[in-house]
Amino acid sequence: MQRLAMNLRMLSRELSLYLEHQVRKPQLVTGGESFSRFLQDHCPVVTETYYPTVWCWESRGQTLLRPFITSKPPVQYRNELIKTADGGQISLDWFDNDNSKCYMDASSRPTVLLLPGLTGTSKESYILHMIHLSEELGYRCVVFNNRGVAGETLLTPRTYCCANTEDLEAVIHHVHSLYPSAPFLAAGVSMGGMLLLNYLGKIGPKTPLKAAATFSVGWNTFACSESLEKPLNWLLFNYYLTTCLQSSVNKHRHMFVKQIDMDHVMKAKSIREFDKRFTSVMFGYPTIDDYYMDASPNRRLKSVGIPVLCLNSVDDVFSPRHAIPIETAKQNPNVALVLTSYGGHIGFLEGIWPRQSTYMDRVFKQFVQAMVEHGHELSSM
C-alpha cells in the first residue's frame, strides 16, 4: 500500500513537471486592441495560465469525466411555456433571483439567457454552475430548452437545429419584452453556442443582447463530423450522442411519420447519418452538405455586431484546432477567441479534485460581470 502511494505521488510529480513545460497561457485572439485591453483589465482570467487537473488532462478524459465529477448545485426553476408562430411551444426555465441584494428592482436586474448543448436541458451541471455564479452576482437567468427535449409536449412536427434561429429569435424577443430596461446577455454551450453565433451573425448589431459568450463551439460542422467519426471518438462520443438524439425524437415519433422515415432514422449509427435522415429533412435542406454549410458559425463570425467571447480548447475532438476561425476573428473588433492548450469539450477541469468550479465557469463569471459593470467602456475606447 505504501509503495502504491509512493508510486502515485511520483507519477503526479512527473505529470506536474510535464504539464509545466506543456501548458501555456491561453491564446487571446481579438479583432481590435480595444476589446483585448478591456478583457485584460476586467476579465483577467483569459490571460492566466490554465492548469488542467493533473490526473485528467487529456482531452477525452476531461470530456468524459466532467459530467460525473462536477457538482450539481440545487436550483429552483419557474417554468414558462411560450407559443411560437407555427403553433408550437418552447419551454423556458427561469431563475428569477428575487433575493438579489445587488439588484432588488426586478425591472433592472441583469438577465442572462443560457443555451445548453445538443441534447442538453436546464438540468446540465454546466448550466447549473452558470446559474449559481449568476446568483452570486445578483443576476437573473433563463434557460432556453430546445423543442421536445425538456419533457414538454411537442405540438407541431418540428424539433430544432443550430442553423435555424427562429425559436431563439422568439425567445430573445419575449425575454426582452418582459424586462426591456435590464442588461441582457447570453451564453451558449456547444451546439447552444453554435445557434447563438448563427443568430448573431444573421442579425448583426440589431439585437437587444448587450454581449454574449460561447463555450466549446463547433466552428465547422464538416470538420466536427469528420473528427467525431474517427474510430475512438465514434466509440466514446458519436454513437452515444446519436442514441440520445434518436431517443429524443422517438418520444414524439407519431408527429414525424408523415414526413420522415423514422425506421430509417432509428438505424443511424452516427450524428451525420442522423442529420442526413432527420435534421436536414426536417428543415428542408436538399442535402446534408447544404445543412452542414448553413450550420457552421465560422461563416457568419465576420457579421457579429456585439461583443462576443468564445472559449475553445485546441485539443477538443468535437471542434478540431484547424477549424477554429482565427483569421476571421482578427477581422471583427467585436470578437475575442480564448484558446487553451487543454480542456477537451466542455471540460476545463482544474485543481486536484475539480468538483466545484472549472476554468470555463471562471471565464463565464468574469466576462458577464465585466460586460454588465464596465461594458460602456468599450464604446468609448
From TrEMBL:
Organism taxonomic ancestry: Eukaryota, Metazoa, Chordata, Craniata, Vertebrata
GO BP terms: medium-chain fatty acid biosynthetic process; medium-chain fatty acid catabolic process; phosphatidylcholine metabolic process
Native source organism of the sequence: Camelus ferus (Wild bactrian camel)
Domain of life: Eukaryota
Gene Ontology CC annotations of this record: membrane
Name this polypeptide is given: Phospholipase ABHD3
SUPFAM superfamilies: alpha/beta-Hydrolases (SSF53474)
Chain ranges of the AB hydrolase-1 domain: 110-351
Alphabetically ordered keywords of this record: Hydrolase, Lipid metabolism, Membrane, Phospholipid metabolism, Serine esterase, Signal-anchor, Transmembrane, Transmembrane helix
Residue numbers annotated as active site: 190, 316, 345
